[in-house]
């Protein structure tokens, strides 16, 4: 079994590390927050004194950190301390540019690397059913795949360095736009006197069908497991949706891609968050749209 260093033991990192322990790997963990270290210790992770100390003893280093700047600073700190030829896996959601820079740092130190962001949220992390979107060379992917397996429902090799992050932000741009679309349809239906269930029964088996409707319906009732039935507790917080939409627009600007609906979705989620809803599930956007006044 492999020795894995896990750096960033937050909402996602801790349950992911726990699944690696359960599958028989030795996991050396590090985080800046003592409470998160305590949770990790209780899950069977061996706590290291620093990120560099964790990396020094590991064949594979996984990072699960908030943003690109954290990943780059940790990579700069630990790449020179890692075992020769070790594999670095970054599963954080970060901008494509920083992801490529992180690959460059790893390469300069003779390390293998993949970017491997995830979808599936905290529930998927706990259940070991995350989807991993992986960018990196074929030899790095071959080493990464069996390590990711205990945490994964699906692993997709998306292409070269940065392709995993590109897939993640494109997917979540679809999700942000589609959740607003579904929410607008329910809001209009309410005003036209059409019941939630009737719209659901029609659209879920017609051309309006999509994940935001059939799995994550933003009104209570039709899909009992959706956050709408639980006061819009996340799930996937609106602040994280806004983060991913911002990353998508940053990437779109950098390559000159026209993404007008992605841009508008970012503006709508920014206004939703600024109105005090950052901690709400992102499907709570329906309440914001319902309360909005029509212009024109
Ligand atoms: P989190 O804030 O709970 O965890 C991040 C952890 O990183 C924190 O515990 C923090 O202390 C630690 N950290 C920060 N800088 C560090 C450093 N220099 N050294 C060691 N530890 C450090 O966030 P999260 O919800 O676990 O998300 C992690 C990543 O996963 C983010 O990039 C997020 O966008 C992505 N993601 C989150 C979800 C979700 O539903 N929460 C879903 C998919 C992807």
Compact summary:
The chain is α/β, with parallel strands linked by helices. The chain has helices at residues 13-22, 34-42, 51-56, 68-78, 96-108, 121-127, 138-148, 163-192, 196-203, 211-214, 238-255, 260-277, 285-291, and strands spanning 3-7, 26-30, 46-47, 60-63, 87-90, 112-115, 118-119, 130-135, 152-159.
Structure description:
The chain is α/β, with parallel strands linked by helices and 296 residues long. It folds into two domains: 3-160, Rossmann fold (3-Layer(aba) Sandwich); 166-295, N-(1-d-carboxylethyl)-l-norvaline Dehydrogenase, domain 2. Helix content is 51%, strand content 14%. The chain contains 13 helices and nine strands. It has helices spanning 13-22, 34-42, 51-56, 68-78, 96-108, 121-127, 138-148, 163-192, 196-203, 211-214, 238-255, 260-277, 285-291; strands at 3-7, 26-30, 46-47, 60-63, 87-90, 112-115, 118-119, 130-135, 152-159. The strands form two sheets. A six-stranded parallel sheet has the order 3-2-1-4-5-6, with helices on both faces. Strands 7-8-9 form a three-stranded mixed sheet. Helix 2 links the parallel strand 2 and strand 3. The mean pLDDT is 97. Nicotinamide-adenine-dinucleotide binds at residues 7-13, 30-33, 36, 51, 64-66, 70, 74, 92-93, 118, 121-122, 236, 240, 243. The active site is at residue 168. InterPro entries: 3-OH-isobutyrate_DH-rel_CS (IPR002204), 6-PGluconate_DH-like_C_sf (IPR008927), 6PGD_dom2 (IPR013328), 6PGDH_NADP-bd (IPR006115), HIBADH (IPR011548), HIBADH-like_NADP-bd (IPR029154), HIBADH-related (IPR015815), NAD(P)-bd_dom_sf (IPR036291). Belongs to the HIBADH-related family.
């Amino acid at each position: 079994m492999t020795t894995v260093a896990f750096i960033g033991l937050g909402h996602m990192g801790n349950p992911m590390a726990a699944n690696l322990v359960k599958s028989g790997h030795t996991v050396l963990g590090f985080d800046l927050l003592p409470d998160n270290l305590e949770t990790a210790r209780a899950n069977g992770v061996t706590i290291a004194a620093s990120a560099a100390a964790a990396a020094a003893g590991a064949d594979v280093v996984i990072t699960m950190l908030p943003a690109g700047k954290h990943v780059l600073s940790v990579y700069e700190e630990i790449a020179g301390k890692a075992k020769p030829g070790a594999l670095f896996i970054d599963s954080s959601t970060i901008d494509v540019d920083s992801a490529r820079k992180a690959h460059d740092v790893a390469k300069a130190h003779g390390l293998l690397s993949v970017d491997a962001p995830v979808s599936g949220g905290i529930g998927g992390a706990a259940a070991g059913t995350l989807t991993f979107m992986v960018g990196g060379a074929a030899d790095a992917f071959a080493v990464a795949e069996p390590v990711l397996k205990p945490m994964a429902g699906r692993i997709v090799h998306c292409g070269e360095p940065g392709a995993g992050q590109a897939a993640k932000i494109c997917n979540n741009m679809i999700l942000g736009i589609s959740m607003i679309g579904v929410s607008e349809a329910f809001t209009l239906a309410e005003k036209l006197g059409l019941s939630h269930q009737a719209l659901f029964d029609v659209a879920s088996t017609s051309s309006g069908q999509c994940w935001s409707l059939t799995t994550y319906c933003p009104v209570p009732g039709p899909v009992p497991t959706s956050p709408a039935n639980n006061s819009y507790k996340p799930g996937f917080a609106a602040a994280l949706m806004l983060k991913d939409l911002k990353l998508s627009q940053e990437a779109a600007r950098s390559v000159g891609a026209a993404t007008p609906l992605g841009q508008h979705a970012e503006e709508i989620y920014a206004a939703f968050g600024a109105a005090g809803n950052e901690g709400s599930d992102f499907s709570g956007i329906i309440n914001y749209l319902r309360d909005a006044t029509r212009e024109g």
